[in-house]
Amino acid sequence: MTTNLKYAGLRTMMLLICGLLCLSLMTPASLAADKKKKAKAEQAPKGSALWDSIDFSKAVWPNPPAPTRIKYLNYFCCDKYVPPASKKTSWMDRMAGAQSEQQAQAEHPLYALWTPYGLAVDSKGTLYVADGKVGAVFMFNTETKDISMIKNGVNARFGDVMGLAIDDSDRLFVSDTKLHRILVFDKNHKVEGSISQGVQDPTGMVVDNENRFLYVADPGQDVVFVYDADNFKLLRTLGTPGKSHTLTEPGQFAVPTNVALDEDNNLYVTDTFNNRVEVFDADGNFIRAWGKAGDIPGRFMRPKGIAIDVDGHVWVADAMADRVQCFTQEGQLLMWLGGHGEWPGYFQTLAGLYIDKNNRMFTSEQYPGRVQMFRYFTDDEARAELAKRKAEEDRKKSGTKPTGASAAPPATGSAAAKPQ
Q: Where is the composition biased (Basic and acidic residues) (predicted)?
């Protein structure tokens, strides 16, 4: 025992010596840096989120050095998105019921999105978000994040709002699965009519401004309804109702959730339970279908949101994979982004997808109650960037300096000729 105590004493002495050596090796510069870092942390705004302190301006897809096709811009959630506090409260605080300011704001944020789904953008660039749990349509100024709302019991009567669509005169269509109807608002957000003929669970919608069609997906009945966008009369139905989500034949649906149009007014439908996209012409004739079930990129695990960019690429949001994928109109995979997570470009229960005329892409997530905003770089921008890169390489090889006449055109985006 005496020997053990002797060794224990030696170990204690050695630890003390090591500690003194470590302190002596800390230079005044390192001590000053630690002090500065601590002071900076103390000066940080109380309750500010880590999210808002990080520069995400270089969050792009695909990863460099590949040319960029998608760039993260911003998010919309509440006044400030505060992820759950990582630091646990002490047992005394928990016993007393104390909460940090971050925890309180995260659990009860002001004007929080709870279950955002449908997305739309009007001619002024205002972002509209349908939230069934809140019972409102949020309207975000995408520059300032200022919020206004179309509220249940104030501006209209809502049950469970899901889908949104806006026509070229800024009339707003809002689908309601609980009240089994679509409410129509004028450009001043006053109710001017409703559509209830045929619908049971209306969700995703899109307006064909040229032919004046309103397409409404009804997953409860496995059909897509086509209405006159002006007099709201039912014109025709795509699919066969009442088959309990069992039909797999081309032109039939098993839980169609969302719809989109290309420049030729062809209709694209996410056939969610069949894990595919189906395409129809403006007369309702079936054109093609593509997609298979699977958890790898290029396949689907529950496709929902769908949008088409200015170059005709088809973007599909997958709710289970939390992934946004880009395809040709024939179904060839071009690129993808996403995965489960909270950071930009990652998703949690991804639902809605929308691309506006300014090449901004919006995604809605059910679990964190959030909408993310991205920038899509077009094929023309891609070609300009590739030309700039080539000109720069040629200049370096020749050893000449760029001039106003010979310099490559300024890049408007870092992109490839096609998404990759």
A: 386-397
User: Nearest CA to 185 among 148, 220, 137?
Assistant: 137
Nearest-angstrom CA–CA distance, 199 and 188: 26
The mean per-residue pLDDT over the stretch 73-91 comes to 60
Question: pLDDT band at residue 287, thresholds of 50, 70 and 90?
Answer: very high
Question: From CA 137, how far away is CA 127, in angstroms rounded?
Answer: 10
CA within 13 Å, CB half, 70:
27
pLDDT tens digits, residue range 102-113?
444 444 444 589
The one-character DSSP state at 280 is E
Residue 25, domain member (yes or no): no
Instruction: List 278's β-bridge partners, or say none.
Output: 269, 289
Residue 34 belongs to a domain:
no
Please report, to the nearest 10 degrees, the dihedral formed by the alpha carbons of residues 388, 391, 395, 396 taken in order: 60
Domain count, the chain: 1
Report which of 137, 148, 205 is spatially closest to residue 128, judged by C-alpha positions. 137
- 334 CB contacts (<8 Å, ≥6 apart)? 313, 326, 327, 328, 418, 419, 420
Dihedral pair phi/psi, residue 196, rounded to 5°: -135, -10
Residue 148: give the domain boundaries: 68-78+110-384
Q: What is residue 324's predicted lDDT score, i.e. its pLDDT?
A: 98
E strands, 97-222, where?
116-121, 127-131, 136-140, 147-151, 161-166, 172-176, 181-185, 191-195, 205-208, 213-218
379 found inside a domain = yes
Evaluate whether residue 240 is within a structural domain: yes
Question: In the chain, how many H helices and how many E strands?
Answer: 6, 25
